[in-house]
Write a structure and sequence with these properties.
elongated; microtubule binding; double-stranded telomeric DNA binding
Length: 356
């Protein structure tokens, strides 16, 4: 498919494409491009159909089945390389409806979905070449369930008719034909043989088969392109989420710095307020000190007033004694006096000088 894409791109370059040189594709090139895109779409829808069948997603399977049917119907002719893909889509659609006898895929209303699936499986085996054990198991399970579904619904006559159509050649798989004929005559749809080759086992075998197709078609161009687109969107979403986280962290850091700055400004304001109040406190303590000094001075004055009279009387007595000493001529004679007496004499001389 990668080669087809490269060839298509080369064709576009040669013929010109809208928006490049202003030249549109010629009708022949456009038809080729449509054919390539049709191949991609068919492989892509079949790939999705197989994946939904394998995973048991009924709603998605029905939606993809409708898309595949629309793509197949749009093809004027099914290319040989796409026959296997178309057969596989038809096979899965019929097996998914295997229990519905009221659903018809053939013009003959007697043909049940599983009987129609058996015809498609025969065509698919021809496209794949030599069948392996998985192919043989699927064929055997389809044959058994074609009969079993009619018996489960109580259509024993129709089950016998189906058995005749399945084994037109009496020699083909004779043991299985005889075993089924015996079961149809017993009219017991719950015999161990039918339980051992159940419809659920058929579904399980088909899931194993489509798994091989899924692995072989993982290189489909649309799948690869869609996968790259999804990965690019996821990467963009991851980068956007990281940018959002970084912006949130930056905003948180900015808010934290703003809060810290506000706290520091508040602290400085508090300190400034404290510095302004401190002098006021010291001033008040100084006023208290001055008040205390004034009180002490007042107390001293009161003490002077109390003792002032006694001190004046002592001074008068000392002066009188000094005058007597001068009059008697005893001033200057050596006598035993205390240091306090010398101090008093010095002070007395000073006072005399002031008084005379």
């Amino acid at each position: 498919m990668g080669g087809a894409w490269s060839r298509w791109r080369a064709d576009l370059k040669m013929a010109g494409a809208p928006g490049s040189d202003g030249v549109f594709l010629c009708p022949m090139r456009l038809a080729q491009a449509e054919a390539v895109v049709g191949d991609w779409m068919l492989e892509f829808t079949c790939y999705c159909l197989c994946r939904h069948f394998r995973e048991g997603r009924t709603a998605e399977f029905r939606r993809c089945r409708n898309v595949a049917q629309a793509v197949i119907n749009s093809l004027s002719k099914i290319p040989a390389r796409q026959k296997k893909t178309v057969y596989l889509c038809q096979l899965l659609t019929r097996i998914a409806k295997g229990k519905r006898l009221d659903c018809h895929f053939e013009n003959d209303q007697r043909i049940s979905p599983l009987e129609s699936a058996l015809s498609v499986w025969t065509l698919l085996e021809r496209e794949e070449g030599k069948p392996d054990k998985l192919h043989e198991d699927i064929r055997r399970l389809i044959q058994i369930q074609v009969v079993a579904v009619h018996m489960e619904k109580g259509y024993f006559k129709e089950a016998a008719e189906v058995l005749e159509r399945l084994f037109t050649d009496l020699e083909s798989n004779k043991p299985l034909r005889m075993k089924l004929a015996t079961i149809v005559k017993s009219k017991d749809p719950y015999v161990p043989f039918l339980q051992n080759f159940s419809y659920d086992l058929l579904i399980s075998k088909m899931k194993s088969y489509v798994e091989l197709f899924i692995k072989d078609n993982e290189t489909n161009f649309l799948i690869q392109a869609a996968t790259k687109e999804v990965e690019a969107k996821e990467l963009g979403a991851t980068m956007l989420q990281k940018e959002t986280v970084n912006v949130s962290e930056t905003e948180e850091e900015s808010n934290l710095e703003t809060n810290q700055s506000s706290m520091e400004e508040q602290s400085i304001t508090n300190q400034s307020s404290g510095d302004v109040r401190k002098p006021i406190v010291r001033h008040r303590s100084g006023q208290k000190h001055r008040k205390k000094s004034v009180l002490q001075s007042l107390n001293s004055l009161q003490n002077v007033e109390k003792h002032g009279d006694a001190w004046a009387c002592g001074r008068k007595r000392q002066i009188e004694e000094f005058r007597i000493s001068l009059a008697s001529g005893s001033f200057g004679q050596t006598s035993k006096v205390s240091p306090h007496t010398h101090t008093l004499r010095g002070e007395n001389m000073y006072l005399l000088g002031k008084l005379f």
